[in-house]
Amino acid sequence: MTRTMNTTAGSGISLDYGEGWYGEEQDGAGPFRWMGREARCRVAGLGISGTGLVRIAGGLWRADVTAPQLSVSVNGMLVGSATIGSDVADRVFPVECTDPLDVVLALDRTFTVPGDPRALGMKVRAIDVFSPEWTSTSVDAEGWYQWERHEYFPFRWMRAAARLFLPPILLRRGGFAEVPIFTPGETAEQVLKVSTACRAVAEIPLRHGWHIYGFELETVPPSAVDDRTFLELTFSLNRLAPGSWHPADPRELGVAVGELDVHPDRRRHDFVGRFHRESGRSQSPSEPVATSPVPSPHAVHDLPIEGDGWHAIESGEAGRFRWMKLEGRLRIAAHARPGQFCVMPIFSAFKNMAQELTILADGQVVAEWTLMKGWNDYNLALGARGRDVVLTMRLKKLTPYASHSSDPRDLGIRVGLLEFHDDEERHARAVFIQENRTRSQRELLSGATVLSSLPSTLGIDLFGKCNIKPACVYCPWDWMKELEGGNTDAIIDDRTLESYGRLFAGAESLVNCSFGEPLLHPRLEQILELVARHRKTIELSTNGQAFTARTVQALAGKPVHLYVSLDAATPETYARLRNERWHEILTGLLFLREARQLAGGWPRVNMVFIPMRVNWPDLEAYFRLCRLVDADALVLRPLLMEESHVDTQRGGYRYVYAQEHLGPDDLGQLVGDCRRLSDRYLVPVRTQFDFGKTDFGGIGTSTTSPDRG
Amino acid sequence: MGLLNRVGVEERLAAEELGTTSECLCHEPWESYYILRRGILPCCHGSKPIAPMEDFERAWNAPALQEIRKHLARGRLSPYCLESTGCPIVQRHLHAQRTRERWLPDRVRTLGKLNRLLGGKPARLYYRLVRALS
Ligand code: SF4
Ligand code: SF4
After folding, report:
1. For the ranges A152-156, A245-249, B81-85, B102-106, the one whose mean pLDDT is highest
2. The whole model's pTM is what?
3. Phi, psi of A128 (to 5 degrees)
């Protein structure tokens, strides 16, 4: 019987099963054979020499049988032995390669099962032979479970200890190893030791979640790597993953380990190491940062309603709320009011400002607001604390029934959970913004051309230099810098923003539109502090190559909507658009995810993807990446129809701007793919293809952020 | 009521009451303002600055910006917008215009022929219906 081998080998290799095997069978995981007490096979067509590896994947599949001892001989020489357990497991034996290779597997016992007359030894899933000449990826030995491929990183769980072999082809790539590892445990709870047969290589305290770790391999120059042998590495853990994390999984789980990569880049190695060193020991997610300037999640879980003017509590995109009918009452108890000022989030469906809300406290009118469409914060001064306040909220009209025909209720406005504070300055600023917003909407609706209102979104230009050189393939860098003239080096920082006076005061959000990388700004911390202090939000588009321990720390907990422009999910595609620094970005994004988890989810992370011919194949992997880094959304941004004559060669690819555009049919298909993938990976998708059209019925809501990376 | 619903009158009236039918082409020059190194822009898609960066205070109500607002308020794109070909709103507008130019004359001619063949009845019916609905 001949079967093509299940190896990384080229074609022409054959495996002849000799005596001692039963016929091939199938189960859910693929084909297998039972062997008896002793079984032989011959591997031919190897054409190799040197120290190769024979890997036998097998097990008993029965827990009620005494574990037999397996001895493996090759060409008449005993090469090793192992105890066979009930699960399928890999056992690897180094062998001196010859062609052909005669392999004999011998067990010290067999067993029988009722109804099957055969003497069963071991169930063998595969016999693989790896030659040092043509194996290009690491070879797993004992201690690993099966590979899983449903996440961004293909990975397998390791037990408390595991062995793997690195082939010469991989070792010749360089002296640095990099490997993604996931632990559900707390940071520094688990420590991974890496060693070769003769020395300890690294001792790595692991951080919670997925992270990338690097270590130096043997200090042998690539040219001096022994072409004839594999390098054996042993991974061992001080402890297993907490059992409480996988109560339904009886396996012995240590950590999940992705594919090990070897590279020659000391800068890349140092970058990863520095991130780990400088990020220090993080807190556990159960210890949130107490001083986050972003409004903390409400401690209250409902509105203090009174009477029957309200519908039941519901949850939506903006959090928990209740629909109010035409009139509703709130009783705010003295003890539940930690401040004299109240922020009330209200949603109105009226776009023409035809909805008005009057609020009375103890029979006196305390506020009359013209409501704007969507969710907006309204600010109310409730006066001295220490007594209960009853607010009567009276609307001018209900939302027309025909606009919510599937919901027959009386719907007025939605009211979100209230926030109280005692900060007079904050209240004054918020009232200024609220009044400006109202004036602005009135002027817009009336078509006024000279405005007394101020813009609610202020575009700023924080930093004029970029760390991507040459610029991203689609970036009109030279043209922009020409337009900027002498202003490219002008300093724009927190002090400049304050000097914008009323324009800064009236703005609810700032949008950075630099042709440059804002995270490189030397006063990034001060800028973000200023924005947080004024309770504004800021949109920053970043290329992701400026994540360091410092910038991640500066961003953590700040009211930032971060747009990370990658457009690629693999190092290859990324190199075609930008450069070879993909791995650093991944490292940074994983640290950012950890920092956000500890800081109430801020900054919000939007992963930008400009669909083009070059990156369409990466779409699904991009969704996986978004899930890995816990992105708030994947943002589809159009490649603008500018008359660009870009025709350039990068990353082994010819990028012609005009040909990278997707036509309407392709875009339709892509949007369909996005819908499907969004459901599968639970990653919301927003599109900026429909800029300017407010009611987009597609896969998400349109946003108006800048279109540059 | 059933008939009215079928032609969507109720929904249309509701949309009118909510003010969602009068879709302004673009809100940017009322709601946004960009003080950038290359100059002042009314939106992030504007092709060229309307004033130098230092003039940020005056430029908010400068004639150039008033002109853009005037056109948009009337449901038209301003000459400034039409020059900003990177703007998706402008792109959509130009695309729609091209499509109209390609199809409209033929369709008008065909409908006109059909109307004449039927003695002008379809047009009379159509206008009566429009009047009844408005
Ligand atoms: S697109 Fe952004 S990140 Fe890329 S070169 Fe231009 S400014 Fe830099
Ligand atoms: S160029 Fe586009 S975004 Fe800018 S004002 Fe005109 S329509 Fe609006």
Report:
1. A152-156
2. 0.85
3. -115, 145
Q: Considering chain B, what is the average pLDDT of its residues?
A: 80
In this predicted model, what pLDDT tens digit does every residue of A535-560 receive, in sequence order?
999 999 999 999 999 999 999 999 99
| Same domain as A345, residue A274 | no
Amino acid residing at A480: M
Ligand 2 pocket test, candidate residues B24, B47, B90, most atoms within 8 A of CB:
B90
Judged by its nearest atom, the ligand closest to the C-alpha of residue B43 is 2
Output the six-digit token pair for A120: 């069963």
Residue A460, min C-alpha distance to chain B (Å): 5
Q: Is there a single domain that holds both residue A268 and residue A333?
A: no
Residues of chain A where predicted confidence (pLDDT) is lower than 50: 1-10, 282-298, 692-709
Do residues A193 and A143 make contact, with C-beta atoms less than 8 angstroms apart? no
Complete edge-to-edge strand list for the sheet that includes strand A89-96:
A21-27, A30-35, A122-130, A51-59, A89-96
Q: What angle do CA A621, A625, A626 make, to 5 degrees?
A: 120
Any atom of ligand 2 within 6 Å of the Cβ of B29: yes
* Domain-ending residue, one of A238, A258, A285: A285
- SS3 for A96-120 is ECCCCEEEEEEECCCEEECCEEEEE
A258 φ/ψ angles, rounded to the nearest 5 degrees: -85, -170
A542 touches A467 (CB < 8 A): no
pLDDT band at B93 (very low <50, low <70, confident <90, very high): confident
Residues A10 and A72 in one domain: yes
- Please give, rounded to a whole number of angstroms, the shortest distance from the CA of B103 to a CA of chain A: 18
Residue A287: its pLDDT value, please?
41
Residue A635 is predicted with a pLDDT of 96
Tokens 């130096």, residue?
A: A216
User: Is-contact B82 A525, C-beta < 8 A?
Assistant: no
The number of folded domains in chain A is: 4
Inter-chain contact B44–A704, Cβ cutoff 8 Å?
A: yes
Q: Which domain holds residue A17?
A: 1-131
Question: What is the enclosing helix (H) or strand (E) of A332?
Answer: strand A327-332
- The candidate with the shortest Cα–Cα distance to A481, out of A530, A450, A515, is A515
Higher pLDDT, A303 or B25: A303
Do residues A51 and A228 lie in contact, with contact meaning Cβ atoms separated by under 8 Å? yes
**Structure confidence at residue B124 as a pLDDT band (50, 70, 90):** low
Pair (A574, A604) in one structural domain: yes
Q: For residues A7-36, b (16+ Cβ closer than 10 Å) or e, as one string? A: bebeeebebebeebbbeeeeeeeeebbbbb
Strand order in the sheet with A364-370: A305-306, A327-332, A389-395, A356-361, A364-370
CATH number of the domain bearing residue A170:
2.60.120.260
Does any domain span residue A487? Answer: yes
CATH code, domain carrying A539: 3.20.20.70
Checking ipTM against 0.85, whether it exceeds it is no
Measured between CA atoms, the residue of chain A closest to residue B21 is A351
Handedness of CA B31, B35, B36, B38 (dihedral sign): positive
Q: Token pair for residue A306?
A: 């009174």
- Token representation of residue B101: 């130019």
Q: Which helix (H) or strand (E) holds A416?
A: strand A413-416
Alpha-carbon span A500 to A491, nearest angstrom: 14
Residues A553 and A656: their CA atoms lie apart, in Å, by: 38
Sheet holding A191-195, edge to edge: A139-140, A161-166, A231-237, A191-195, A200-205
What's the gap in Å between A519 CA and the centre of ligand 1?
12
Is A634 in contact with A626 (CB distance < 8 Å)?
Answer: yes
Question: In the beta sheet, which residues pair with residue A351?
Answer: none
Nearest-by-CA chain A residue for B40: A459
B33-75 pLDDT, tens digit per residue, is: 999 999 999 998 898 999 999 999 999 999 999 999 999 999 8
